[in-house]
Amino acid sequence: RGILPGGIFERLVCLFVGESVSNPGCRKPELYKSFARVYVGPVDYFELTKQDEEIMVQTKDPELAEKVLTMMLANIRRLKTEVMGKDLDFKVRVGEMDKKVMSLEYARQNKCSPWFSRARPAVSVNLNAFMGELGA
């Protein structure tokens, strides 16, 4: 375990909110000190929670898991490149409520559902359009 640098949670929330509010039909996000609910449609959402030195991202809809994971990884890479440089080291683990948590690498190699689908291609995110929306 490491230390979560100050402001990383808030910056991550801002990246997600920036993408959400640019989509017509999305509800307004719910933002608090250590919690955010971000909508990706009229009713579909995911939650970010800061607990101690971890940021948890959760969705109750397995159909959103792959998309949210893809967005999360893109945003972490962006933070690492633009803000923290090589000094930001992060570990991503995936899991379901009250079930086993596993490393991202294990889940990817074994195509673990719902984060990686065997039946359909991975959700792609147009990072150029996403970055353009954020003014990058």
Give your account of this protein's structure.
By secondary structure, the protein is α+β, with helices and mostly antiparallel strands. Helix content is 37%, strand content 18%. It has helices at 8-21, 62-84, 104-109, 127-133, and strands spanning 30-31, 35-39, 45-51, 54-58, 93-95, 101-103. The strands form two sheets. Strands 1-2-3-4 form a four-stranded antiparallel sheet, covered by helices on one side. A two-stranded antiparallel sheet has the order 5-6. A hairpin with a 2-residue loop joins strand 3 and strand 4. Helix 1 (8-21) packs across helix 2 (62-84). The model has no long low-confidence stretch (mean pLDDT 80).
How widely separated are the two ends?
Answer: 31 Å
Following the backbone from N to C, one meets helices and strands in this order, namely HEEEEHEEHH
Q: Give the low-pLDDT segments.
A: none
Average pLDDT, all residues: 80
